[in-house]
Amino acid sequence: MKLAILGAGESGVGAALLAKAKGLEVFVSDKGEIKEQYKQKLSAAAIPFEEGVHSHDRILSADQLIKSPGIPDKSPIIQEAIEKGIQIISEIEFAGRYTDAKFICITGTNGKTTTTLLTYHLLKSAGLNVGLAGNIGESLAEKVIENKYDYYVVELSSFQLDNMYQFKAHIAVLLNITPDHLDRYEYSMEKYAASKLRVAQNMTGADFFLFNADDENIANAFDSSNFGGTAIPFSLNGAEGAKVYLEGEQVHVVEKFYEGTIAVAKSPLIGKHNQYNTMAAVAAAKLVGVADADIEKALATFQNAEHRLQTVGEAKGVTYINDSKATNVDAVWYALEGIKQPIVWIAGGVDKGNDYSSLVELARDKVKVLICLGKDNKKLQENFSRVVPIVAETTSMEYAVRLSRSLSEAGDVVLLSPACASFDLFNNYEHRGQRFKEAVDKIVLKK
């Protein structure tokens, strides 16, 4: 079989290496520049590739095409492939063909990285033979070459789910559905939700679908009457039929032979959204047989990924939290809701059509200072200047942090939670978060 791969990033190169290992004829094409580390991998495996161009004739002679999640279906080369009847699949779909390991797959508009890392941590700490892959930044296909794991915890974006057809998860988790990336779905929430629900496709009664019963968009999109797996709703709000729920600082799991009550007080995660993330991860761990005591012990040692409500410093009683990954309004809502201390909030960047109305009351109650960090801060000022006592603006991260220091006092939290993309002033959200951390480090050293 001839296989063409579009995109030579982590997923594309991983798929190419797996294809080569399985004896398939494979060609890799990237219209942009390929990073040196990936060129070296392709060259070492004697896989032909091109960069800066798509050779249509060569690509369209393939039997199947694997595309990077970042390439939209409306791309001309994809449209040509569809017209020729070439099947287009994702790296995850391809990798799933070559392993009998069980997949624990996690998606949602917000919280999927934290939940993926926490689930992996709970399983690995308990001694299970488990790998980590997917949208987290590690190629599932490349890991499947050695095929040494019994379980894979896989973070899935909607873009990855779109081109998955036969793939089946043993445990699927859907955390929430809120508007995001709607330009890829004809600005239809129904189509975006349908994409997210693909995480539970092909399930049988021996498979489990953990979903947030408090999420209205999930409730509207999920048809339980046509579902072949075992549905396990989780809830903070006492939803009817919930099989996973939180009481005080204990998660209760009630599902056939997997009952348990797990204390979560020692978890370092804060905020209501992380209560949902924790319920989902704890339930997934219970479903694969991890003991309550092992879950409780591992919760206390979990360290979240960078840029996600990450405490990066403390000086003169002020805590500095990096939430640069919060690039939409919902993510910021969870951050503001979860922090109980007075907040100096740093926000701004490239607005994605944000509706800030859901944040106004939280800002009124909790935010003492708003520092707008961006080239165009008009919308933030219009929404919050009447509810936040002090509103300032800057295009310098270092100045924003220095200003936050001068306007905060012991017991406050300085929170970088932008609600916006980063591309006006930074390369990406990681670059923005790193600049925040560097600026905080200077303050911490001077305390």
From TrEMBL:
Keyword Ligase: yes
Mur ligase C-terminal domain span: 307-420
Entry GO MF terms: UDP-N-acetylmuramoylalanine-D-glutamate ligase activity
Subcellular location: Cytoplasm
Record keywords: ATP-binding, Cell cycle, Cell division, Cell shape, Cell wall biogenesis/degradation, Cytoplasm, Ligase, Nucleotide-binding, Peptidoglycan synthesis
UniProt key word Cell wall biogenesis/degradation: yes
Catalytic activity, reaction form: UDP-N-acetyl-alpha-D-muramoyl-L-alanine + D-glutamate + ATP = UDP-N-acetyl-alpha-D-muramoyl-L-alanyl-D-glutamate + ADP + phosphate + H(+)
Residues covered by the Mur ligase central domain: 106-285
EC number: 6.3.2.9
Alphabetized InterPro entries for the sequence: Folylpolyglutamate_synth_CS, Mur-like_cat_sf, Mur_ligase_C, Mur_ligase_C_dom_sf, Mur_ligase_cen, MurD
Pathway where it operates: Cell wall biogenesis; peptidoglycan biosynthesis
Positions of ATP binding: G108, T109, N110, G111, K112, T113, T114
Pfam families assigned to the protein according to its UniProt record, in alphabetical order: Mur_ligase_C, Mur_ligase_M, MurD-like_N
Record's function text: Cell wall formation. Catalyzes the addition of glutamate to the nucleotide precursor UDP-N-acetylmuramoyl-L-alanine (UMA).
Stated family: Belongs to the MurCDEF family.
Entry protein name: UDP-N-acetylmuramoylalanine--D-glutamate ligase
Organism: Pontibacter rugosus
Gene: murD
